[in-house]
User: What shape does this take?
Amino acid sequence: MNQRSISVIALTLFFCAAAQAQTVVGNASAGQYESAMCEGCHNVRGGFKTEFPEVYRAPMLNGQSAAYIAQCLADYRSGVRRNPTMKAVADILTPQQIANLSAYYAVAKNQKMK
Ligand code: HEC
Assistant: This one.
């Protein structure tokens, strides 16, 4: 391997690392699609309750700021905020899905309630 190919590889690695370090930008329409897995518990008209593992109230998410939604999900993942159901949900979300869902709920209106 000559010096030129080594520098090409080094440059490629550098740009890959730089691309990964970029902050993830949320896409609200992708988030609307992904929110199908949240709506069974959240934004349900009349009570917002889930019965597993105990009876919990599932809060309204529509209209919450993107930063708030993302922070809640991060807290469930890390265990700062404890709830077995939301821990399980937050654990399977990718950073991109979290950004999408946060962007979506920030613009979602309460009229969309089922
Ligand atoms: C099986 C029911 C269930 C599902 C599915 C579910 N959640 Fe939750 N969620 C809850 C419950 C119950 C709480 C309240 C937990 C607590 O007391 O901390 C909650 C809390 C939250 C909170 C904190 C809101 C606040 O104001 O404190 C956020 C954000 C959240 N969920 C996002 C989501 C997202 C996004 C999805 C879909 C990817 C989702 N949840 C799917 C039941 C659910």
Q: What stands out?
A: The chain has a mean pLDDT of 82. Residues 37-38, 40-42, 50, 56, 58-59, 61, 69, 72-73, 81, 83, 85-86, 89, 93, 101 surround heme C (CB under 6 Å). The CA atoms of residues 5 and 11 lie 10 Å apart. The chain has one domain: 24-112.
